[in-house]
Amino acid sequence: MSQPPVQPLVDPxxxxxxxxxxxxxxxxxxxxxxxRELLADVTASSMDEHARxxxxxxxxxxxxxxxxxxxxxxxxxxxxxxxxADVDAIAVASGPGLVGSxxxxxxxxxxLALGLGVPLYGVNHVVGHAAVDELVHGxxxxxxxxxxxxxGHSSLLxxxxxxxxxxxxxxxxxxxxxxxxxxxxxxxxxxxxxxPHVDRLAREGDPTAIPFPRGLSKGRELLRHPYDFxxxxxxxxxxxxxxxxxxxxxxxxxxxxxxxxxxxxxDVLVTKTLRACEEHGADTLVVGGGFSANSRLRxxxxxxCAQAGVELRIPPIRYCTDNxxxxxxxxxxxxxxxxxxxxxxxxxxxQMSLSVPVVLPPAE
Amino acid sequence: MRILAIDTSxxxxxxxxxxxxxxxxxxxxxxxxxAEHTTPFVHDVxxxxxxxxxxxxxxxxxxxxxxxxxxxxxxxxxxxxxxAAGVAVxxxxxxxxxxxxxxxxxxxxxAGPSAAGPGEVRVAxxxxxxxxxxxxxxxxxxxxxxxxxxxxxxxxxLADEVTRERAxxxxxxxxxxxxxxxxDVADVPFDVAHLAAIAWxxxxxxxxxxxxxxxxxxxxxxxxxxxxxxxxxPEAAR
Lengths: 364, 238
Hints:
Number of helices of chain A: 13
Helix content of chain B: 25-40%
Low-confidence stretches of chain A: 1-8
Mean pLDDT of chain A: 94
Shape of chain A: globular
CATH class of the largest domain in chain B: Alpha Beta
Largest sheet of chain B: 5 strands, mixed
Number of domains of chain B: 2
Radius of gyration of chain A: 21 Å
Protein name (chain B): tRNA (Adenosine(37)-N6)-threonylcarbamoyltransferase complex dimerization subunit type 1 TsaB
Oligomer: heterodimer
CATH architecture of the largest domain in chain B: 2-Layer Sandwich
Organism (chain B): Miniimonas arenae
Shape of chain B: globular
Strand content of chain A: 15-25%
Radius of gyration of chain B: 20 Å
Distance between the termini of chain B: 66 Å
Largest sheet of chain A: 5 strands, mixed
Largest interface: A-B, 54 and 46 residues
GO molecular function (chain B): transferase activity
Keywords (chain B): Transferase
């Protein structure tokens, strides 16, 4: 039985060059990755424009993506010292995220793929937050847990193969961790986005001063939602605490409020994640997403992972916030896995399931 | 010359124009799904014309105005296709395709008895929120020349002008919105291929062809994420 010889498209000794495009929220990212090597990573942000509204304005973000995409692409090519003709594949975050933002990057990626005659891969933004760590700490083990925490997401993933086998174990049922920080930052009269400000204030306070609640962590709620998170009740509890002190005139420490709130968030995230590591026999934890910049989360995760014998991998902060490198990294893993490319009529999916690392063509 | 024209100001319309003749077209009037449709349509018209992207001489794209997030799809697609294929990209306001359709119909002598003023026309299109985008054009050497607008206006605030212009023989073209206020429109369809013709004339003449979206409105700040606090009296914390 003979088969016709298959000609490799590229020199197999040189991994393909993958261009990644990120535009799910307010950051426009373009990056180039060859194998697991990051060649360039350029990010433009419209956060300064949103800050004056106290939140992300979808139309402002979408307009900014259109202005930033081509300049970011040029900058990434120049930085990597490659040309578009060298690019072997395009990866784009086609979800989850804001529709207007996703639309710009995805439409641009398709046109680029058609214009260059290279395959297009619509990949998952949240899975990308885990995938980027391969560029920093090398190949993943056969099985690991990924905790992705940001202003838009708080998700716990069981990953057996970053390109083909990702299972969402849990997620937030209401606010994302970063979102809860922004809201508590506002309650404490801190500037938007509140995350870094609350974190800074928390370092001056006593994390055990106020026993704020740990959501979905006890009894029936825990049984029903072992790996889900809820931060809305916690935020309300902070608001009630502040209202009561304001009403009674009783003195209180804003730093203690910030520290106790931070402790509650970090405690729930780390406790549930390590329980999942144990249950699923994973000895590696990857933490990604913008909220992994939080200092108390980093401390507590390091401390408890060491106790549990779990290897903790957290990429540097610039790869935790939204960027093109994470998308190119996931695209590179998808190309390595030999998966078919996404169709050119690929739709953006603002609610993309986290169990879908890449959008595959419909089954024949 | 071989020109690809893309417009996503309302539906998604794509045409391949070769030596002034439409070689292939693809489109949908659907006001959504621009991001899904545009590149497959481009692929289809190029395939129908037997061309690769790099064979093009120009990519022309409608710059609006348009109220839809879809407008950006056409612009970003044209920009990146042009960049990838090494082809120049030229922007033309989408309203000018309507005006050019009218001028060409008049030149063909097919505009009918109301065509007393074939050299001038008003365009009115859907801006949503009970408003229209409008501009008045005269025929120029390199396509329509705006003598009013483009601007966004409530139909009622345009009614008197339209009445005066009609009396002077200036027709209204567009999708025919608000007929009770703006009257009937001349029967000229939107044709994306006109953008190709205008873009070619302008680039040949060295006129500016900015690939910039015409929004005509400030960004809508509704729907700010995290804007609604689900707890009472946040002032209490200050």
